[in-house]
Amino acid sequence: MQKLLLVVLVAFGCLTLTSAQNLQSPSTFLGYDIGTQFSRHHQVVDYFKSVAEAVPNNVKIEQYGITNERRALVLAYISSEENIQNLETIRKNNLKNTGLLEGEPTNTNVAIVWLSYNVHGNEASSSEAAMLTLYKLLTERKDLLENTVVIIDPGVNPDGRDRYVNWYNETKSTPYDIDQQASEHKEPWPGGRPNHYLFDLNRDWAWVTQIETQERLKVYNKWMPHIHVDFHEQGPNEPYYFAPAAEPFHEIISDWQRDFQTQIGQNHAKYFDAEGWLFFTRERFDLFYPSYGDTYPTYMGAIGMTYEQGGHGMSGLGILNDEGHVLTLVERLTHHTVTGLSTVEMASKNAKQLNTEFAKFFDNSDLKYKSYVVKGNQDKINSLKNLLNKHEIKFENANNGKVSGYDYTTGKQGNMSIDNNSLVIHTNQPKGKMVKVLFEPSAKLSDSLTYDITAWSVPYAYGLDAIASTSKVNSTKTYEGKMPTVLSKAYGYVSKWNSLEDAQFLADLLKHNFKVRFTEKPFASNGEKFDRGSLIITQGDNKHLEDFLGLLNQLKQKHKQNLSQINSGFSQTTPDIGSPDIKLVNKQNVAVLSGEGTSSLSYGEIWHFFEQQLHYPLTSINTDNLSRTNLSKYNVLIIPNGYYGSVLNDTNMQKIKDWVQAGGKVIAIDGALRSFAGKDGFSLKYKSSDNNNSNDNLTPYAEREREYTNNLITGAIFKTKIDNTHPMAFGYSKDYFTLKLGSSAYDLLGSGYNVGHLADTKVYSGFAGKDALSNLENTLVFGEERKGSGSFIYFVDNTLFRSFWENGKLFLVNAVFFVNNNAYEL
């Protein structure tokens, strides 16, 4: 028996050894030394799969999603054989340790480290480093795996990576050219940084608008790692950056999180010092805006960190930087590999304390606000529920009554009547600190020098009335509302108009060839009052549809719309249904500028909005082709944020003016307004600054950067006065909270319609410098200027910014379908 057991053990040992011997290095597997070529995404994935096949007892591969361009999103779980066998138990123990899962953990001695690579596609050294890190963990640092589970995402943004890598591989010289002016260092528009829809995935963690983020968070919530690292690149003249981060730190970040970042940074420094590599810490990259790959994990209890290697997309395989150093891809990926391994080393050394401190983070008893209560349009409430569900944040319905606390609408203490349709989000739940971050009226800033916007409060973004209460508000578990009833035959049907869901319903009606009207004036029928913008679908307009009522019922059920039936075209209060003030909605042909001159991010926001949210066709026109484009095919031309000096030259500007005169509509967003402001024939003018600073600037050199913040607005929230009788503002109240991203200011239109303007400069959330504020009073936010039969429509503030400012999206839909609605076009 003992001989038999020995034979079995020897045989098993041989199998294990043979399996390990099958483990290939990245260079061997790829067929070229790693770092001497850029690997495509599928090669990276194939390498990870080959490793999992070679050492299945140490590596498990999971595909967690697929991108818009059908590339696989994968994770690798790397650990000891024992941990891999007990992976599910380790996962559940971690959730029990936080209270996210009921029960007591049986073991909290394993650290969970999540390493994310290549969130920006043209910061492409990191996916190469992911392969080398995986290999070295299994060959040189296998000891670290005894008490750590390492989760590696080798490519967060596969579509962006391959856009960059494919361009570079087809463009570069052989051997590569280190001259900064060479074409291989000049990436074309839109670049590889964003994903398919040109979104910056490193700003999408909290808002979850993109498929990559949506699929990743499902797995992230299942694991809730103790450490999360996002690997990046910056310009080729910058040395390596790693934690600790810069101020401002959000106030919920614990002393332990701050201290352990420093410990990790010091461990990195040990390895960098030994090689004489340059690095910096505690500068530029703060921990404040919640939607980053370092802040979001931090607010979920982890040690969240950004690592930045010098290089970026312009560096290719090698570049001569401004210091005379040839920075190579080999060097860049080596640095990322060292910090990745150093991070795992620190997790292994401190696994027990990581678990202990992680559990402490989820004690939310000391938070000031105990409940956030929101009420408003049900569609907007449902949209907020959808966001909270993605983060697995719990919510309940309020009980009837009143609630007191900080009133978001007034910006001071107040009270609000609530009912069981109001939503309550308590902070005494495990993710209570993330609740605070997302809902707090105004995040506390310890430093005005920040890397991103400083305001994002969800009630403002979703257009909901809200109270932040210092005492826990009574609530009950949520219930689902009633499904819409089935329509019976009637003269016509009326749909409300105050949410994106209503706009999606309209788009679907037009897609199915319904003729739809909207009212420019309020009216009453059958004892109901209907506001401006309400949609009206009549039997008489739709005789061309074979099964009008059946199809209408199908679409209303699909969109969960409650339609009101009207039995006559004779209204109780005018206008009647046949009035000129109740107009048919044109089935608009919409175009948008793309290419050089446009902001790829702004274009991507518009593209994504039409394709993935409104579900309405959009034609993209490259700016290079504008002079040859027949604009008469389109009713609307959207010009995204951008710089159009050479694009909107005299010839193209005259072409657009003529098209507008004939009935076209231009919708200009943010920086696009610069092309029209102050130009002949336009009422749009820049607001002149009242500041009379002396030309002799005596501000010391060391204080210039901080002094400059007086002129900045870094994503602050202001109350806007709205003319909601204008079609651009149908569905809105007279007040709207806008997210202002910069200090550009425009006078109110001398001719035309000032649909939205800042009446005062009170900041409800975020940072705005004193000099910038002094120039904002009585300035334009939304406006329309008529030219001939058409219009120029101005959006000073971008309502589609990162697709998270939900309450602003209807302005754009109104501009497309309602503003200056010309005669119905067959």
Can you walk me through this structure?
The protein is of the alpha+beta class. The protein folds into four domains: 25-361, 3-Layer(aba) Sandwich (Aminopeptidase); 373-477, no CATH class; 492-584, no CATH class; 590-685 and 712-817, Rossmann fold (3-Layer(aba) Sandwich), CATH 3.40.50. The protein has 22 helices and 36 strands. Helix 19 (650-661) links the parallel strand 29 and strand 30. The longest helix is centred in the N-terminal third of the chain and has 21 residues, at 255-275. Mean pLDDT is 93; it is low at 1-18.
Quick take:
With 826 residues, this protein is an alpha+beta fold.
Task: Spell out the blueprint of helices and strands.
Elements lengths: L1 H20 L4 H5 L10 H14 L4 E8 L5 E7 L2 H5 L1 H12 L12 E7 L7 H15 L8 E6 L4 H14 L39 H13 L3 E8 L5 E2 L4 E4 L5 H21 L3 E2 L5 E2 L7 H5 L3 E8 L7 E3 L5 E3 H21 L1 H11 L9 E5 L2 H13 L5 E3 L2 E7 L4 E7 L4 E4 L5 H8 L18 H5 L2 E5 L5 E3 L14 E4 L4 H12 L5 E3 L3 E3 L2 E3 L4 E4 L9 H11 L5 E3 L15 E3 L5 E5 L5 H15 L4 E4 L13 E4 L10 H12 L3 E5 L34 H5 L7 E7 L12 E6 L12 E6 L4 E3 L4 H5 L4 E9 L2 E6 L13 H9 L9
Parallel strand pairs: 3-4, 3-5, 5-10, 6-8, 7-9, 27-28, 27-29, 29-30, 30-36
Antiparallel strand pairs: 1-2, 2-4, 11-12, 13-17, 13-18, 14-17, 14-19, 15-16, 15-18, 20-24, 20-25, 21-24, 21-26, 22-23, 31-32, 31-33, 31-34, 33-35, 35-36
Helix pairs in contact: 3-6, 6-11, 9-11
The total domain count is 4
CATH superfamily of the largest domain: Zn peptidases
N-to-C span: 90 Å
- The number of helical runs is 22
Mean pLDDT rating = 93
The CATH class label of the largest domain is Alpha Beta
Give the overall silhouette.
Answer: globular
Tell me roughly what share of residues is in helical segments.
Answer: 25-40%
Radius of gyration: 29 Å
Which regions are unreliable across 5 or more consecutive residues at pLDDT < 50? 1-18
